[in-house]
Amino acid sequence: MSRSTYFCVDAHTCGNPVRVVVGGGPVLPATAPMAEKRQIFIKQHDEVRRSLMFEPRGHDVMSGTILYPPSTSDFDIGVLFIEVSGCLPMCGHGTIGTVTVAIEEGLVTPKVPGTLVIEAPAGRISVDYVLSGGKVDHVRLFNVASYLHASDVQIDVPGLGEIRLDISYGGNFYAIIEPQPNWPGLDGMKASEILQLSPIVRALAQGAVAPVHAEDPRISGVTHVMWCDAPKHRQAHAR
Fold it and tell me: Which pTM value belongs to this model?
């Protein structure tokens, strides 16, 4: 059995874990764009993801990133997103946590102070950050272009019945469910029920639509499920 050593910084974004691999990641072609690096990683190095994300070093909601030099001078840093479910084109909370770690630990020097430009497999991600006392106080993320891929998709969910959802893209493909006759909203569901039903909904949505990105066929498949409801806090836009 081969042995490998990875140098990591564990962080979190509002409780969501982010394991940032700052050294020891697999060597990938330096001039290849991150989208191509992702394909190479998936085909040749997926054992790295499994060893860092799965138990005993990870858990069922573990997430992380591997840092790389960017393929061109248009970016400050390259980021590969890994988690239990696979190697993703983009991850919002992973980006926030990674930027925080990279800036606070001095792992990257942005060309423009206060803005880190990331080369992600999904494309260009620009992140504004504010430093306070050597710590990142907050960040603002400008994601890749999003779009509605399919609307009013009908699936039959065991235990719920007919459910209608939309499938949208924003770095990954999301199945989005809003209150409707067979699902009155979040207040009627336990967290355990969401965890149980989400993989089922994801598989059914994928079977119904099987989305492929309009401009990059390497990005495909429903990877996330969002259960949405009206906000309870007056300053919030959604829940």
Answer: 0.94
